[in-house]
From TrEMBL:
Source organism (scientific name): Paramuricea clavata (Red gorgonian)
Protein's recorded name: V-type proton ATPase subunit C
Record bears the keyword Ion transport: yes
Keyword Transport: yes
Coiled coil region boundaries: none
Length: 384
């Protein structure tokens, strides 16, 4: 399942009627149902605190969900380039996501329930934790993407068209006249359809060009790379006349140390990328689980706060998680309405469909309202 319903209903009555057993027995065939374990020792606080916290938790819910999906989508982006596009397997606390949700237990090690810890304290702990994950993700993504971009740029120069390609891989020392006081060698890009023109006239483009000094060094099918020997004093004139004939002189100086440095830079970037990739993938998997776990804890806090506000004190409600199929959602909604419509003292609802109502103090704006507390949880992280 990718969509769950988190609901709470009033707890056991004085007559001993169990809301859990009633709902479990009547939802057969419509939905699986599990208890959603919310700690009994959460601190309720005052009514004003709960009302304010309701709004804050809704904002925190959206924030944590957003960061959870942000981490997951970056995981998918990394997997697409390093694992042939295989979608990453998302887990939380070592479990499949649906297993984690349906067997949820409050993590007291991360979010302690000691006497002094209030609901707002817990929300702040979760908020700081997820904010740190977001900050770390930005830093790690920036560092990795920087190396990846630099590497891609060098690779494009090494394999791109001759007009922009790094020519160092295509030439040899013997293709140049080096250490001459008067002569120099130029590299010229010639369109393949003009090769014959080049061969006939390159040595006539200006004076002091050495005849029979040009040979084709490489071709990519569209352009060919030629060298040519000439006197240094006519280089500018030669470039001008070459351009007039659609021959492109590439700026290039043969320097073995510079060529070696370029190869070293490429090798270094490839090595840096590999060194960062493994730890980055591990970090993403671990911190996706941390963010997802934090998100479900926020949902637990929201369900607790809204249930206390709805049903009052002393705290007495059952929290449950259901996984209705789309075909059964209408029937399940009708069943729930039949069981709990009596809770709606104001008769806000006229039928089993939720109306858009604004409940001051409980929401940030209009939302779906039912006589029981209800939240939708979609765990298909990659679904837009």
């Amino acid at each position: 399942m990718s969509e769950y319903w988190l609901i709470s209903v009033p707890g056991d009555t004085k007559e001993g009627h169990s809301s859990w057993e009633t709902l479990k027995s009547q939802t057969g065939g419509l939905s699986n149902i599990w208890k959603f374990h919310i700690p009994a020792d959460l601190k309720v606080g005052t009514l004003d605190t709960l009302i304010g916290l309701s709004d804050e938790l809704q904002k925190l819910d959206l924030f944590v969900e957003g960061i959870t999906k942000k981490v997951a989508h970056y995981m998918a982006e990394i997997a697409a380039e390093s694992e042939n596009g295989t979608q990453p397997k998302l887990k939380a606390n070592g479990c499949e996501l649906n297993q984690y949700v349906t067997n949820f237990q409050w993590d007291v090690a991360k979010y302690p329930l000691i006497k002094q810890t209030t609901l707002r304290n817990l929300a702040e702990i979760i908020g700081k934790q997820v904010t740190q994950i977001d900050n770390d993700l930005k830093a790690k993504a920036t560092a990795y993407n920087s190396v990846k971009t630099s590497l891609a740029s060098l690779e494009r120069k090494a394999t791109g068209p001759l007009l922009t390609r790094n020519l160092g891989e295509l030439v040899k020392k013997e293709n140049f006249i080096l250490d001459s006081e008067y002569l120099t060698t130029l590299l010229v890009i010639v369109p393949c359809n003009l090769e014959e023109d080049w061969k006939k006239q390159y040595w006539k483009l200006c004076d002091m060009v050495v005849p029979n000094s040009s040979e084709r060094l490489f071709t990519d099918g569209d352009y060919s790379l030629f060298n040519v020997c000439l006197f240094q004093k006519v280089v500018d004139e030669f470039k001008l006349h070459a351009r007039e004939n659609k021959f492109v002189v590439r700026e290039f100086v043969y320097n073995e140390e510079a060529l070696a440095a370029g190869k070293n830079e490429l090798n270094k970037l490839e090595s840096d990328k590999k060194k960062q990739l493994g730890p980055l993938k591990l970090w993403l998997h671990v911190n996706f689980g941390e963010a997802f776990s934090a998100w479900i804890h926020v949902m637990a806090l929201r369900l607790f706060v809204e249930s206390v506000l709805r049903y009052g004190l002393p705290v007495n409600f059952h929290a449950m998680i259901l996984d209705p199929s789309k075909k059964m959602q209408k029937k399940l909604r009708d069943l729930l309405y039949g069981l709990y419509s009596h809770l709606d003292n104001n008769q806000i609802l006229s039928d089993s469909k939720a109306e858009q109502v604004d409940i001051p103090g409980l929401t940030l704006g209009p939302k779906e309202y039912y006589p029981y507390v209800w939240f939708q949880l979609k765990i298909n992280i990659f679904e837009r």
